[in-house]
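Quick one:
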Amino acid sequence: MSEHSAAIAWRRETPDFAYETFNRDHDWTFDCGISVRASSAPDYFGVASCVDPEEAFVASLASCHMLTFLALASKKRILVDRYEDEAVGVLDKNEEGRLAVTKVTLRPRIVFSGENIPGPDDLKQLHDRAHRACFIANSVKTEVVVEPRE
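Output:
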C-alpha cells in the first residue's frame, strides 16, 4: 500500500478575525515540491483566483477516473491520443442535511487512433470498469456519473 500527503499552511493577514473578513487563502504543498494557492469558494468569502477544495475534489475524481481509464485502455491495446474532461460537482445538502459535494458528473471526450477503436458498448464498459477501479471514487459517498461526449 502507499501513503499520500499534502502540507497546508494558512496565516491570518487581516487585522481582525471576523467571519466575513478574515482571509481564506492558503498554500497546499505537495511532496513533489509543487505549491498551489488555495482558498474557499468565492461564495464563502474566498479568492476567485485560487483553487478551492470543492474544485480540487472534482479534479481529483476526474483525474483518477482518467488515469484508471488510460491504464485499462493501454492494457487492452486501445490507443488513446487525447482525453479531456469538463467535470462538474454539485454542492447540495446530503441525506443528513449537511452541505456536501453530492454529485460529480464527468464529461470525458476521448480521441482514439489505430486499429482497435472501441465502439459505444466497449467504451461504456471501459468507463464502468474505470469507475469501479478508481481509488478516489471508491473513497467517497458522492454520486459519480460518467457522461462521455462525442
